[in-house]
Design goal:
Layout lengths: L2 E7 L4 H12 L6 E5 L2 E8 L2 E8 L4 E6 L5 H9 L4 E4 L11 H16 L2 E2 L8 E4 L8 E8 L4 E8 L2 E8 L3 E3 L2
Parallel strand pairs: 3-7
Antiparallel strand pairs: 1-5, 1-6, 2-5, 3-4, 8-9, 8-12, 9-10, 10-11
């Protein structure tokens, strides 16, 4: 069991930097136990089909577990000089490891987010939407209420000149910019 740190890296290149670190630091012997890039599942509608995709919920940050017995000064320097790595998160010159309860809390959050996929688009009251699925395809409306736990919206749509309230799934509508 090692010590955990948060590493600030170039956004969008987390996976590439993870591979670089594993190859560069673990060259002689294993000094990095594991690297976690916090990701969650998001649902998006493409061509009328719901698809689950992976999205980073802390873009530009990753968790890294280093061996306790590693010569930390040398390892820290190698990590900091890896292309795409900005620095360790924390104050001062010496990186500060995370407390064990904090790392457990973060791991629990990662597991919870992976277990329940979220819709990619977040809706707010008074957002304009277009219905893209169901019997009212092509109609536009205004969001009246949002039920994120049920992934549903209450929408006001004008049908035959009268305002009508509809309850729709997130994936049945598209936000109009």
């Amino acid at each position: 069991m090692g010590k955990w740190y948060i590493l600030h890296v170039r956004t969008g290149q987390e996976k590439k930097i993870k591979k670089l670190l594993e190859n560069r630091i673990n060259d002689e012997k294993k000094k990095i136990n594991q690297i976690i890039i916090p990701e969650e599942e998001v649902l998006e509608v493409e061509k009328g089909e719901k698809k689950a995709k992976s999205r980073r919920f802390w873009p530009g940050y990753m968790l890294i577990e280093l061996e306790d017995d590693a010569n930390n000064e040398i390892v820290w320097h190698k990590i900091k000089t890896t292309p795409g790595v900005f620095d360790f998160l924390g104050a001062g010159e010496t990186p500060v490891p995370l407390k064990e309860e904090k790392i457990e809390e973060i791991k629990r959050e990662i597991e919870e987010r992976k277990a329940k996929p979220l819709p990619k688009v977040e809706f707010k009251i008074k957002d304009r939407i277009e219905i893209i699925d169901g019997p009212f395809v092509g109609y536009t409306g205004i969001v009246e209420e949002v039920y994120p736990e049920r992934e549903r919206l209450k929408v006001s749509v004008s049908i035959f000149g009268r305002a009508t309230s509809l309850e729709l799934n997130f994936w049945q509508v598209e936000k109009i910019p």
